[in-house]
Amino acid sequence: MSASLGAHLLVAQAGAGAFSWNLVSDIGQMLSFEFMRNAFEAGAMVSIVAGVVGYFVILRRTAFAAHALSHVGFAGAAGAAVISISPVWGLLVFCLGGAGVMGALGQRIRERDTVIGIVLAFMLGLGVLFISLYSGYATEAYSILFGEVLGISTGDVALTAVIGAVTLLLLAAMYRPLLFSSVDEEVAEARGVPTRLLAIGFMATLALAVAVAVQVVGVLLIFSLLVTPAAIADRLTSRPATAMLVSVVTALACTVVGLAIAFYVPIPVSVFITTLAFATYLVVRWAPRVVRSNPPTTEGAP
Question: What gap in Å lies between CA 107 and CA 115, rounded to an integer?
Answer without folding.
Answer: 9
